[in-house]
Design a protein that fits this description.
By secondary structure, the protein is of the alpha/beta class. Helix content is 43%, strand content 15%. The protein has a single domain, classed as 3-Layer(aba) Sandwich (Rossmann fold), CATH 3.40.50.720. It has an 8-stranded mixed β-sheet with strand order 1-4-3-2-5-6-7-8, sandwiched between helices. Helix 1 crosses helix 8 and helix 6 (210-217) packs across helix 7 (219-226). The two termini are 14 Å apart.
C-alpha cells in the first residue's frame, strides 16, 4: 500500500524556474516521495511543468532541486494536508494560476489509518476515506474547468487492494471506492472532454518503505512474498509512473473510465496471503 499521504501543516509555496507558454502543465498530489516522486520526474522528463504537494518541506525541496538540475523545468511545490479541503482546493487553484494551464491531474497521495477491525476506531475509517476518496474528488472538482479548457485528463492512483481483497479492510474499501469514483467521474466529465482513469499498482519496492523493510528485516518472508509475482520481483514504481504518463498523453485518448492494474500479475496483495 502507498503511504504517501500528503498530511501535514502548510509552509506555503515554493517555485523554481519559470513556466514556458507551450508546455503541458501537470498537478501531482503526494508528488515528492515514492511513486509520486517517480511520476513527477517522469512528467518533468517529458518537458512538462509540474505542481506538487507533499508531506514535508525537505522532500519537496529535494525533488524541486532534482527537477531543476536534471530537466530545467518548473516545479511549484506546496506543503499541505490533503485532507484539509480548503488548503487542497487552494493548492489546485494556485497551481493553475502559476502554471498558466492544467493538462493533467494525478492524485497519488493516499494511505490508511488504523489496523485490524477490532483495533480500528470510526475516525480511522473516516480519515482513510478522506485520504483516498474525498481528496481526489476535491482536487478534480477544482481542476475540472482547467482540464476542460485543455482537453486534459486525470489519473487516480488506487491499489491492487482495491480489487484483490486483503486487510486492512478500511484501506481495501477506500481503494475500491476510488476505482468506482474514477469510472463515475469519467461518465460525468466525458462530455466536457475530460478523461478520468485509475491505476492500481501492485506492491512496489520503494527504499525506506514497508516492503523494503520486510526485505531487510524478514528476508525469508520477503522471499516467500516474491513468489506471488510470476517474474519473482515486486513492482518498480518507475514502471507505474510510465503507465500514468501514458494515460495523460494523447496516445491514450480512447482510454476513459478504466482501471489499469500495474501489478506484474501479482496474486495475493499481502505477504501474509488473502
Amino acid at each position: 500500500m502507498d503511504d504517501t499521504d500528503g498530511r501535514d501543516g502548510g509552509d506555503g509555496p515554493h517555485e523554481s524556474g519559470a513556466p514556458g507558454p507551450a508546455r503541458r502543465a501537470m498537478i501531482v498530489t503526494g508528488g515528492s516521495r515514492g511513486l509520486g516522486r517517480e511520476v513527477t520526474l517522469r512528467l518533468a522528463a517529458q518537458g512538462c511543468d509540474v505542481a506538487v504537494c507533499g508531506r514535508d518541506t525537505a522532500s519537496l525541496e529535494a525533488v524541486a532541486k532534482e527537477v531543476h538540475t536534471e530537466y530545467g523545468r518548473t516545479l511549484y511545490t506546496e506543503r499541505l494536508d490533503v485532507t484539509d479541503d480548503e488548503a487542497l482546493a487552494a493548492f489546485v487553484r494556485s497551481s493553475a494560476a502559476r502554471l498558466g494551464r492544467v493538462d493533467g491531474l494525478v492524485t497519488v497521495a493516499g494511505g490508511v489509518r488504523g489496523a485490524d477491525l477490532r483495533d480500528t476506531e470510526p475516525h480511522d475509517w473516516d480519515q482513510t476515506c478522506r485520504l483516498n476518496v474525498t481528496h481526489p474528488a476535491i482536487a478534480l472538482r477544482e481542476a475540472a474547468d482547467h482540464l476542460a479548457g485543455t482537453g486534459g485528463s486525470a489519473v487516480l492512483v488506487s491499489s491492487i487492494s482495491g480489487w484483490k481483497p486483503a486487510p486492512p479492510a478500511q484501506y481495501a474499501a477506500a481503494k475500491a471506492a476510488q476505482i468506482h469514483l474514477a469510472a463515475s467521474l469519467a461518465r460525468e466529465l466525458g462530455p466536457r472532454g475530460i478523461r478520468v482513469n485509475c491505476v492500481s499498482p501492485g506492491s512496489m519496492l520503494i527504499e525506506g518503505k514497508g516492503w523494503a523493510r520486510l526485505r531487510d528485516e524478514e528476508p525469508r518472508a520477503y522471499r516467500e512474498f516474491e513468489k506471488e509475482f510470476p517474474d519473482g520481483r515486486l513492482v518498480d514504481p518507475r514502471d507505474v509512473a510510465e503507465v500514468i504518463a501514458f494515460l495523460l498523453s494523447d496516445g491514450a485518448r480512447a482510454v476513459n473510465g478504466a482501471n489499469i492494474p500495474v501489478d506484474g500479475g501479482q496474486n495475493a496483495p499481502s505477504a501474509y496471503g488473502y
